[in-house]
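Re: Re: ligand-bound prediction request (bumping)

Still looking for help on this. To restate: I need the protein modeled with 1,3-dihydroxyacetonephosphate bound, output as structure tokens. Inputs repeated here so nobody has to scroll up.
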Amino acid sequence: MTNKYIYFIANWKMFGGLNSLNSLHKVAKFFKNFEKNKYIKIIYCPPSTLIRPMSKKLKNTRIEVGAQNCHENQTSGAFTGSINAKMLKNVGAKYVIIGHSENREAGENNKLINLKIRSALKSGLKVIFCVGETLKEKRKKITKQVLNKQIKSGLDKIKNKNNILIAYEPVWSIGSGLIPKSNELFNIINFIKKKFKNYNVLYGGSVNSKNINELKFIDNIDGFLIGGSSQDPKKFIDIIKKTYN
Ligand code: 13P
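Reply:
Sorry for the wait, this slipped through. Here it is.
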């Protein structure tokens, strides 16, 4: 993984307040001085409350900011508690995560996810589109069918592939400390890339500064979507450094 473009995307989930922005300069400084930085894209997806202040803080850096979800309506309306893609763009987001399993578990289905993706793209955001099988589906050996359905439905009626990153996040791996076996992961990423050509495919699920030493050798992966380990700048920097060691 030395000379190819790699994404490191931080998903902060529902963590962080204004004081969590204080240590961001460490990541910005590291990135600026890191010899491989032209091959790297760093994107922070904090809670929506932090998008504006974080964008301001990272203004003169190449680190970009994204959101974690959006409403499917492109226009404003009476949807209490919701935020649409245009509003996210307006406060500085360049990306939005859509289809995360934590939101699928809360009731988002493939059709809704497709509407959200289309709305985000129309609003000018890039999409980090999450897919992944549950443990039950893995045990039933239907991972590929599940992924095929999720991706096909999610990308329905979408022609422009340029602004979508697919993130493969096995549900059983998120927050569990478990990651797929290297050969299995290679095969799944390969399956996605063959079936859905020209997409960058990332891996997410318990990525940390230890298992990155194994993950970095899976050379069809285009980057990582990182939850827990992205909240601590030291751990996040460590993951990036080790990817290139
Ligand atoms: P963890 O890295 O905490 O397992 O979370 C992964 C994830 O859900 C990123 O979107």
